[in-house]
Structures are given as structure tokens and as C-alpha cells.
Description:
- Helix 1 packs antiparallel against helix 2, helix 4 runs parallel beside helix 6 (189-204) and helix 6 packs antiparallel against helix 7 (211-233).
- The chain is 76% helix and 2% strand.
- The protein has a two-stranded antiparallel ribbon.
- A hairpin with a 5-residue loop joins strand 1 and strand 2.
- It is an all-alpha fold.
- It has 8 helices and 2 strands; from the N terminus they run H-H-H-H-H-E-E-H-H-H.
Amino acid sequence: MSVDLNSRSFKIRAWAGSSIFLIGFALAIGGALFLHTEQLTPIFILNVAMDLCAMILGYILYICAVLDKQWNGANLDYFLMMIVSVFIGLYADEICWLTDGKPEFRILCIAANTVFYCVTPLVVYLFWRYVLTFLNIEKEKSYKFDVAFRIGLCISILSRLLNIFFGFLFTVDESGTYHRSPTFTVAYIYSFAVTVVTLILVIVARKRFKRYQIIALFIYTFIPVAVAVLSIFVYGISLLCPVYMTTPLLIYCILNVVQGQEKSVAENELHMAAAIQETMLPST
């Protein structure tokens, strides 16, 4: 199903998405200037630079996906929501680094970290929905899992909001410095569980995929999981959101672009066969 570039729905989607990204860029650059990046340590500057580069990549990827005439429907919607969610996470991550250790911005630091913690389970759930729509799996077969994952997503986000008051995931002390709580790894349980079930779904439905498609989906899951595990033991460099933005590029190139090329080749062959058949018929 192709998308009409002149349709109202397309224009609304394109303008709404572009507005989110452009406003995000403006806020990100303004925040970097207002919060004085020259006072940051080199590793903090590196994290901010990676976030900004990944945000640019996200905007380019969003435009490419929206303009792709051969891609439409719920599968595209979930992919775009993944990109927008990661973009918001990147902006929150940048604010986290810019405000860390600054007592005058303590409230902003808490808010940014809360948003950052909310992004991971949301992106994981959207990826689950993306795989379901890509496989075109009937709702009856995935309904129970999907309901459980929606409830789990609500609980995960609620726990992050409650953390503002109870601090069982992270705290920001009076000096504005971020600290992980001893139980902060609880925040990853939902994401790991949904990721495992999604991988199992891919393995079970592997006959519907080609080998390169399976590799792309496994890369999307394994690399963020590996980075998340690394971030549990190492604090100081933030790779999770940049990785979350880079791997959708791989998915877009391998799954959707290649699939679109194969579809175009098949359509050309069909037209060619029709043309040959037409020439073989007697003319009146």
C-alpha cells in the first residue's frame, strides 16, 4: 500500500514529526549553550555530542521512513513512534549530563532522568508491536502477551514516577549530583522480559523471515541488551539511546529497503510478463 504524498494525513504526519524534531534540536542546542558546556568534563562533553549526533540521525531516518512510498500502515507507525521515543530519550539524556552536579538545576535533573528511565520500556514495547505488525500475526495468538506487556509498561512507567518520591531507582542529592540506588537494576526487568519474548517470537516465526531479516532483528535486540548490561556495571558514558537510534537505521535498511526493492523487482517482472503475453495475443 503506497502513501499519497499529497494527502492530508501524510502532510499532518510529516509536519508533526518535523516539528517535534526541530523543536528538540532547538532545545538541545539552547540547553547546551545555556547550561555552559565549557564547564563539563571531557566524558560529559562526549556524551552530549553523541546524543546530538544521534538526534540528527533520528531526524534523517524519520524523513526517509515517511517518504518511503512502499511502506505504510501500522508497521510504519510503530517504527516512527520508536524513533520519536528514542529522540525524546536522547534529549533527556543530554539534559541529564548538562545538569548533573548543578544544584540550581536539581529539579530539572530529576525530571530529565525520569523521562530517560521511561524511554527504555516504551521503546522495547514499541519494538514488540513493530515485530507483530511486520509478521502480520493474528491478534488472537499474541493477545495475552500484548495485554501483559501493556500492563507491565504501565507499571514500569508508574514505578519511575514514584521513584521521584521514594528514590528506589535513582536519587539526585542537594548538590544536584545523580546517584544510582542499590535496586536500580529493577528498572531493566520489564525490558529484558519483553526482549526475550520478542526473540522467541522471531525464532518461532523464522520461516516467515529471510536470513538477513532474522540477523537484523537479532542485532537490534542483542546490541541494546549488551549495552544495557554494560551500563549496569559502568557509569560515566551513555551509549544506550545512541545505540537505540543507530539500530533502527539497520532495521530500515535491511528489512524495509531491501523488502521494497524485492517488491519492485517482482512488480517489474509481473509487468514484463503481462507485456510479453499481450504481444503474443493476436491483434484485431
